[in-house]
């Protein structure tokens, strides 16, 4: 068991803006995830969560910092050579919010998995067990993405990521577009996958109610910086940073949640920050 399977150290990313100027989307973000562990990255829209996720998988290049998987540094760019590229793909796979855009519309679910399995030198016969693993049956196996529901498409995207046998799965708002009951099913599925494999999860979400079901540790991001971190249960029940309090007040996690009080708390916090 590796207690530092994924290590992100001092990641920073600043974007140049059209028309001049720049915007720092992530600043000095560090964390580790053990083998089989699950880390949540939470924060409001624009807090830098996706930027961190994109740096992990290599879709954005950090300006500073480094990322290692099992002690091996990940190069910011995709390496040359097929073997090195496939090895890198097996380190980290990503599941996006909308699998509709990342799944090939021409391929049935089975064909989609065959393609991923073949590419990684694994037998096509693993497609059936993978579909089974994510709860897709024989009808869905022959269906193309447009004929699947949102939840089924997300199951297929997870199966395709697992076909690569990755060590780490990064999920960016992976259940955000789904109905609450379907969200719960996908979260249960992820929890099962975690139990059965040693895959580690990095679960990016604006929704604290969602991360509490799948993660052990959580990072709270605000304007590109980590403002709080700790065991998920502790952060959600006894938050230390005022911003985490605010985030918690903003989500209907309890029966006595009061949207008006939450909105007022946010307005008060914004006014305090802006100053006189
Ligand atoms: N390519 C880019 N060029 C310029 N600015 C960017 C770029 N990508 C992200 N940003 C800015 O960086 C900040 C962080 O964006 P990011 O998408 O990482 O946040 P987020 O927390 O994931 O939010 P959301 O949930 O809305 O995607 C935002 O202010 C965003 O506008």
Automatic annotation (TrEMBL):
<keyword id="KW-0813">Transport</keyword>
<dbReference type="InterPro" id="IPR050319">
    <property type="entry name" value="ABC_transp_ATP-bind"/>
</dbReference>
<dbReference type="GO" id="GO:0055085">
    <property type="term" value="P:transmembrane transport"/>
</dbReference>
<comment type="similarity">
    <text>Belongs to the ABC transporter superfamily.</text>
</comment>
<dbReference type="GO" id="GO:0016539">
    <property type="term" value="P:intein-mediated protein splicing"/>
</dbReference>
<feature type="domain" description="ABC transporter">
    <location>
        <begin position="6"/>
        <end position="248"/>
    </location>
</feature>
<dbReference type="InterPro" id="IPR003439">
    <property type="entry name" value="ABC_transporter-like_ATP-bd"/>
</dbReference>
<dbReference type="GO" id="GO:0016887">
    <property type="term" value="F:ATP hydrolysis activity"/>
</dbReference>
<keyword id="KW-0547">Nucleotide-binding</keyword>
<protein>
    <submittedName>
        <fullName>Putative peptide ABC transporter ATP-binding protein y4tS</fullName>
    </submittedName>
</protein>
<dbReference type="Pfam" id="PF00005">
    <property type="entry name" value="ABC_tran"/>
</dbReference>
<dbReference type="InterPro" id="IPR017871">
    <property type="entry name" value="ABC_transporter-like_CS"/>
</dbReference>
<dbReference type="GO" id="GO:0005524">
    <property type="term" value="F:ATP binding"/>
</dbReference>
<dbReference type="InterPro" id="IPR013563">
    <property type="entry name" value="Oligopep_ABC_C"/>
</dbReference>
<dbReference type="InterPro" id="IPR006141">
    <property type="entry name" value="Intein_N"/>
</dbReference>
<dbReference type="GO" id="GO:0015833">
    <property type="term" value="P:peptide transport"/>
</dbReference>
<dbReference type="InterPro" id="IPR027417">
    <property type="entry name" value="P-loop_NTPase"/>
</dbReference>
<dbReference type="Pfam" id="PF08352">
    <property type="entry name" value="oligo_HPY"/>
</dbReference>
<keyword id="KW-0067">ATP-binding</keyword>
<dbReference type="InterPro" id="IPR003593">
    <property type="entry name" value="AAA+_ATPase"/>
</dbReference>
């Amino acid at each position: 068991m590796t207690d530092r399977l994924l290590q992100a150290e001092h990641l920073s990313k600043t974007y140049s803006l059209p028309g001049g100027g720049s915007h720092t989307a992530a600043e000095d973000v560090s964390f580790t995830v053990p083998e089989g562990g699950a880390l949540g990255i939470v924060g409001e829209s624009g807090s830098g969560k996706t930027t961190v996720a994109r740096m992990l998988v290599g879709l954005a290049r950090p300006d500073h910092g480094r990322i290692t998987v099992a002690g091996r540094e990940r190069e910011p760019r995709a390496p040359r050579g097929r073997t090195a590229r496939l090895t890198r793909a097996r380190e980290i796979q990503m599941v996006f919010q909308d699998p509709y855009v990342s799944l090939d519309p021409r391929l049935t679910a089975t064909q989609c998995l065959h393609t991923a399995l073949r590419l990684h030198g694994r037998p096509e016969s693993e497609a059936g067990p993978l579909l089974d693993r994510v709860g897709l049956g024989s009808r869905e196996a022959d269906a193309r993405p447009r004929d699947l529901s949102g939840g089924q498409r997300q199951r297929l995207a997870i199966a395709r990521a697992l076909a690569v046998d990755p060590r780490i799965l990064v999920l960016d708002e992976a259940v955000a577009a789904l109905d609450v009951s379907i969200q719960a099913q996908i979260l249960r599925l992820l929890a099962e996958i975690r139990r059965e494999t040693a895959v580690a999860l990095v679960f990016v979400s604006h929704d604290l109610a969602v991360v509490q079901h799948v993660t052990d540790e959580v990072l709270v991001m605000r304007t590109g910086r980590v403002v709080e971190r700790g065991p998920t249960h502790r952060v959600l029940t006894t938050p230390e940073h005022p911003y985490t309090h605010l985030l918690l007040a903003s989500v209907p996690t309890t029966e006595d949640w009061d949207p008006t009080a939450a909105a007022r708390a946010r307005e008060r916090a914004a006014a305090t920050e802006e100053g006189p």
